Structures are given as C-alpha cells and as structure tokens.
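Lesson 9: reading folded outputs for more than one chain in a single document. The general rule is that every protein is listed as its sequence immediately followed by its structure tokens, and records are never interleaved. Here is the first one.
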Amino acid sequence: MTQTGKQKISQKANQFTESVIREMTRVALQYNAVNLAQGFPDFPCPLELKQAACAAIEEDVNQYAITWGDKAFRHAIAEKVCWYLGLNVDPERHMTVTCGSTEAMAAVMLATLNPGDEVIVFEPYYENYGPDAVLAGATPRYVSLHPPEWTFDEAELRNSFNEHTKAIIINTPHNPTGKVFTREELNLIAELCQKWDVLVFTDEIYEHILYDGTQHIAMATLPGMFERTVTINGLSKTYSVTGWRVGYILANSELTGAIRKVHDFLTVGAPAPLQRAGVAAMQLPVSYYEDLSKLYHQKRDKILQILAAVGIPYFVPQGAYYVFADISDFGYKNDVEFCEYLIKEIGVAVVPGSSFFAQSEKGQKFIRFCFSKKPETLAKAGERLLKLQSLLQAVG
C-alpha cells in the first residue's frame, strides 16, 4: 500500500485549540479544586422547569420536535420577548430553536458568512467566536475593549469597518468582563452597520443578570436594526440549566430561512422534552427575574469581598456572572502558570485571561472567576484563596 502523505487534519481545525474553559473543568476535577472556571451554576434550576421536564417525558414527548423548534415553546418565547424587550417577533417566521446558544452562533455564521468576509469581534471575547468565524471561512477582525470600563475606541471601531465587513458580534452583558454595552455605544454600532450594510450577531444569554441598576438594551429594538440583527439567547444561564442545551435565534424571515437550513443539518433539533419544559421557563413571573437579580447581586458582592480580602485587583462587573481580575502583582510569568499554581497548590480553578484574546500575550495578566455558585462553594473557595496573601507578601 502506498503512502499518499495527505494532510489528515483540515486547515480550519488547525487554526484553533480545544476550549480552555472546558479544559479547566477537567483539570479541576483531577485536582479536586473548587471550580470557579466554567460558567455553570452548582445549584438547582427552578422547580417549575424540573416538573415540566418530567411531565413531558411522562407524556412521551420523546421524538423529534419540528426542526426549528417545538411550536408551544416558540410561541412562549415570542410572548416573553415581547414583554421583556418590547420586541414583536413571529414565532413561525423569525425564530429557530437550537442546541444551546453555542450551536446558535455556529449556525448563524455558517448561514451568513463566506470566505473573504470579515467579522468584527470585540476583544476580550467569549472563546467560541473566533473558531466559529474560522469554520465559516471568514476572517475575525478584533477591536479592543479597554479597561477599566472596557470601552472601545470610536476611531478604532470606525476604521475596522470596510467593504469586506459582513457582521459584527456583540455580547452584552459581556463574558468575560461583565461589561454591559450602553445605548450610546449600541447607537454608534447601529449607525456603522447601516452605513456599511453589516449584520449584527448579538449574544444576549446573560440578559437578566444585571447589577446596580444597569439596563439591558437589545440591539434589535433600535431604529432600523431588526432587519439586520440576529439575536442569540437560550435557557442556560437565566434558568440554571446549562446542560439542557436549548437555545434560540431571532432574525428576519430571510435570515431565519438560511439559519434553519444550516441548523437542520448540524443537529436536526434540540431535545424535545426540554423544549416543552422551556415553555414553563418562559412563563415564569416577573418576580422570578427580580429574585434572580438579587441572588446574583449577593454572589457578586461575595466574590468581590473575597478578592478584596486576598488582595487581587478586579473589575466590577455590570452584568453576567464573572469577575475579570488582574494578577500582575503576583510575580508569575503569565496567566497560565498562575492558573496551574491556583489549581495544584491553592485548590481553586479559574480561567486564564489569554483564552479570551486572539494574541495570548494581551491577556497574560488577567484571570476570570465565575461566581454562579452556592454560598458554601464561594466560601470554600474564599478560604483557599486566602493562602495567596503569603504569596503577595513574598513578592512584595
């Protein structure tokens, strides 16, 4: 048999690594570390969702739902989106239910992008966005968010738009920094998108997790933006069911038609009984979201209290459930080495900041803490992190 010497791995797959975030969970399990890395709650989801899921299985909702989503679930989403965002969407023409918001973003990019297209991505960014663009054959073009407020430079943003720009990705509330984009920022982005005929892919998975009176503004609600905005969301974060893998996409009918085709051949459909349970999620009262906000406010204040006690400088998040912190004072060469020390010697797992940057050196002084955890989990992490005080004293 002759050896052909053919390259077995695609050029696309060679352009990115496995998820650093998910890897940190595997390492945390190996060393029995408190997992403040991956963004999942370690507390139960609402009872109403569990009861609805069990009822759906008991009622034999076990076969494929309609490819683009269970009808009852789509209509429940439309009602919820209307009262919360003030956005009127047609559940038959403007909606696709997916296997989580992760598949949603991939399906959107595959349905809209071509080789040679550019996609603007704010940096730091959730790690999936770059690989998704590569898989779609497009080129990411990064625009920096600058600490401490994680604002972008208007001139840099304007210069990033050109005739090759097909889309821009916005994640608000933002992972990993906790930034919430302001109306002024979104209006500027909207102006540029309309000028250059650019689509907006907006990841709003943390829409209900907000602090200090901060308001979530959906890009699709701004004047002239519904037709060019693709809104991505899901059950995972708001309802504490990250393992259910039920997301959804809102877009105009033309984009929805293309997205549904790609989604069909990616996954066929999201889990049918869990979509039916999603109806119960969409029908929870306003008080649920008020209580959720209070709950996460307490968790945020607790993690900030811990970091202050340890002496780790941090950026106060306006939304989502992460804290981005600066480890410059600890004397480690980079974030990866520091994270390895935290897991093996301190017993706490976090995410190295470099995983949120295209050029890893830009993130080497940052780490990300996740605080969607039970009080006892945060307290245990806090006890272990206090050991870092001796390291700071040694460096000082």
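And here is the second record, again sequence then tokens.
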Amino acid sequence: MNEDFTTKWISQLKKGTLSFLVLSILKDGKEYYGYDLINEIKKRTQIDIAEGTLYPLMNRLKKEELVASKWVEQESGIPRKYYTISKLGLHTVNEMKIYWDSLNTTINSI
C-alpha cells in the first residue's frame, strides 16, 4: 500500500467535501457559530476540522453568497459570528446532493 498517496487522497477528498458538509448542516435552518459548527461536523462525521480550515471556507461561502453571517453580542466574552444558509445556498446544496447521490451510486456499482 502506498501510504503517502492514500493520505494525500484522503486529504483532498475531505477538502472537496467540506463545502457540501457545511451547507448540508446549515440546511436544517439553525444558526451556528464557528466553534459550534466544527463540533457539529465532528459529531455527524468522522472528519476532524480545524478553525484554520473552517473560517476561510466560511469566508468563501459568504463571498459566493451561499451563507450569510451576523455578529451577536454575548453576555460575557466577545461577540460571535453566526452563520446561516442563504436561499442560493439552499438551492446549491440541493443540487450538490443530487450529484453526490449519483456519484455515490456510480462508485458503489464498480
């Protein structure tokens, strides 16, 4: 087994699916702040995501108008930025799901 190749492949696969995962989680309509979103990803998947990976991703999704964000003051501590999915994001994740299901069917048929 080529461990180096496999490790790189897994890393690329994770990077390629993180947008889909984040949008799928936000699809439930709940607002999440960054740390909460990281924990939700860990809870629902076996993917360990770092803050240094999530926040640039969220900025890209916001730039693409797939998510919206707002700052919320906290009783104690600093304000938190909460993320929600936009209408465009909802449409996009639904299209991604259709493709994902098709790809999954194809891979499983091999």
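What the second record shows: The chain has four helices and three strands.
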